[in-house]
Amino acid sequence: MMAAARVWDAEILPSWESMRNAKKTRDLWWMGLPPNVRGRVWQLAIGNDLNITHALYNICHERAEERIKFVQEEGVVLGHTSSEGAAGQHEPSNKESSVKVIKLDVSRTFPHLCIFQKGGPFYDLLHNLLGAYACYRPDVGYVQGMSFIAAILLLNMDVADAFVCFANLLNRPCQLAFFRMDEHLMTAYYRTFEEFFKDSLPKLCAHFISQSVTPNLYLMEWVFLIYSKSLPLDVACRVWDVYFRDGEEFLFRTALAILKIHESVLLKMDFIHAAQFLTKLPEDVSADQLFKEIETVKMNIEKRGFHAVHNFFKDLHTGNS
C-alpha cells in the first residue's frame, strides 16, 4: 500500500487528466486507494460540476446556524425532510424540522466509532455539513441516511471539501432519483437491476419472485446510500473507490456480487427471513472476497450494457420516446 501511495503521489495525481484513465491507474484504483490519497482522488473523480466554492459552504453554514437558532426559538421547519429514509416508505414529514431529524440521524451515524456522537470530534462537523446542504438544496432538504454518506466524506477530507463532494455526489442521477423520491426514475433503476439479476443469478431471482422479495426492499439502502450503511466501513470505502472510477453501474455490479456470495443461504429463506437478512448483511465478508465476486459479474445482456438497458427502462417509465 505504501508503494501504491508513492505512485499516486508522484505519478498519477500530478498528471491527473492524462493519467486517470491509464491502465496502470485503473489497475491500482481497483486494488483500493491508499488512505492518505483517498480523499484527494475522490475529490478529483467526483468533480465539481456545480461549481461550489468554499465561500458558498460558509454562507450556507451561516444560514443553517441562523435557521437552527430560529427553529429553537420559533419551531420553524428548515427545508424539506423525510423521516423514513432509505429503509422504507419515506413520505415528507411536516412534524419534524430538518434540524431535529439531522440531530437524531447524526447520533445514529457509525455509533461504533464514537466520533460522530455528541462530544465526539466529528459531531459538529457532520451537523454543519448536513445543515448547510439543507439550506443549499431546500428542494431536497435532508433525508435520513444522508448522514452516512456525509460521514464517510468527512473521514477523508475537510468539511468544506466534503460539502463540495457531498452536493455533487447527491446531484448524480442515481442518488438524486432517490433523494427526490422520484418513483418513475427509481422504478427504472429497479427494472434495470432485475434484468441483470435474472441473467446473472436466474435461480435466486426466481426464488425472490416466488417469495415477493422485490429490489426496493434492499437496493434502496444499498445503492442509493452507496453501501454506507450496508457494508463494513472499510469495505464500503473500497466500493466507493471504484464507484468513482466506473460510475453507477458499479453499484449494481456490487449488489449482484453480494447476492452471489449469499446465494446458497438466501435460496433457503422465505420473505421475512430474506428481508431481514438483506437489510442487515453479515459483516464477515472481506473487501477482497467481495471484489473477487464483483470481477465475475458481467453487465451485458445480448450485447446491451447497463446504460443501454437503463435508458430503455428510463424512457419507458418517464414517458420519453
Describe this structure in words.
- A hairpin with a 2-residue loop joins strand 3 and strand 4.
- The protein has helices at residues 2-12, 16-19, 23-30, 35-46, 54-74, 98-107, 123-136, 146-154, 159-170, 173-179, 183-200, 202-210, 219-222, 233-246, 249-261, 263-266, 271-279, 287-296, 306-318, and strands spanning 81-82, 142-143, 300-301, 304-305.
- Helix content is 63%, strand content 2%.
- The relative contact order is 0.10.
- One of its GO terms (molecular function) is small GTPase binding.
- It comes from Arion vulgaris.
- This is Rab-GAP TBC domain-containing protein.
Major sheet details: 2 strands, parallel
- Strands across the major sheet, in which order? 1-2
Number of domains: 2
Can you tell me the CATH class of the largest domain? Mainly Alpha
**CATH architecture descriptor of the largest domain:** Orthogonal Bundle
- In DSSP terms (H or I, runs of 4 or more residues), the helix count works out at 19
Strand content: under 5%
Based on secondary structure, the structural category is mainly alpha
What is the overall shape?
A: globular
Assembly status: single chain
**Overall strand count:** 4
Unreliable residue stretches:
83-96
Q: How far is the first residue's CA from the last residue's CA?
A: 48 Å
Question: What is the average per-residue confidence, as pLDDT, rounded to a whole number?
Answer: 91
Q: Can you write the helix and strand succession as a string?
A: HHHHHEHHEHHHHHHHHHHHEEH
Pfam family, one: RabGAP-TBC
Domain Rab-GAP TBC: 32-247
GO molecular function: GTPase activator activity; small GTPase binding
Protein name: Rab-GAP TBC domain-containing protein
